[in-house]
Sequence to fold (237 residues):
Amino acid sequence: MSAEQYLNGLSSLLRELQETQLETVRTVGAAVGRSVADGGIVHLFGAGHSHMAAEEVFVRAGTLTTTRAIWPEQITDKIERVEGLGPSVLKMGDVRPGEILFVISNSGINPMPIDVALEAKQRGAVTVAVSSRQHSLAAPCRHSGGKRLFEVCDHFLDTRVPAGDAILQLPELPYPIGPASTIASVALIQAAMAEAVAWMVGHGYEPPVRISRNMPGGDAHNDALGQRYRSRIPELG
Fold:
């Protein structure tokens, strides 16, 4: 029963994302398409569990090869709450003017993701917050500037996940279960990537889409893309 309720909750959440976030997804996707067409790299950063959404797009079959997760290994909750690390984090990512940076933090209140977004904007990058407005407004901001992640970024993709992340309430428990932020974040980001590919095709550019290496011709196709982008994404080597 609980499993069915959780899956139904996810289905409802995905429908809600389509109903409320599609316009922003299309705007972000077009920006990604333009940036990649101009030779740019798409960067993704997430701390704590949000790093999983960044990694899911990185070196992933069926989406753009020109994506790179910054600091892909998990960052502990304590470090996520440390202010002033934005410049150090971005040194790892080689974020350049005009490129797109997705900053993923469902709560959107901790200093590190906010600092990363602020530093990226100073470097001339276009920032996209992937966060929950409801969660962000339910807790005090931990950054000295007083602004939450969605308030400092150029674009905002709202996961629509309730405060506390979980979406299933059992009558026997005083707290909800069934986290959904990773699924919502990945859905929004991959929807933007799909829109970017469509934008590139529609404007006469060949999108650098990676295919499964477990399909015939996959290795040769991906190796050719790797040669094009290895100078910016060493992990393709």
In short: The chain has one domain: 11-232. DSSP finds nine helices and seven strands in the chain. The first helix runs from residue 2 to 37. The chain has a mean pLDDT of 91.
